[in-house]
Write a structure and sequence with these properties.
This is Transposase. By secondary structure, the chain is an alpha+beta fold. It has two helices and four strands. The protein has a domain of 45 residues. It starts with 6 loop residues before the first strand and ends with a helix.
């Protein structure tokens, strides 16, 4: 039994980040504050988000996710 409501894989680059949800499929967001807000608004509570730490583009998204309710 999976304890997470949904699992998301993130591929992040300078301009955008692509998200694939285990139930919701693929979506793309701008790699900026507005894109982060939009993603967090759509992210179900109790989800797992994973991403590869490549370069430094992932840092701001991680900071936003860190404050997101678990």
């Amino acid at each position: 039994m999976n304890k997470y409501k949904e699992t998301f894989g993130v591929d992040i680059s300078k301009e955008v980040f692509d998200v694939h949800g285990s139930k919701t499929g693929c979506h793309q967001y701008k790699n900026n504050e507005a894109g982060f807000r939009k993603y967090l608004k759509e992210l179900p509570k109790g989800s797992l988000v994973v991403m590869e730490a490549t370069g430094y583009y992932h840092y701001r998204l991680i900071q936003c996710l860190d404050g997101y309710p678990k």
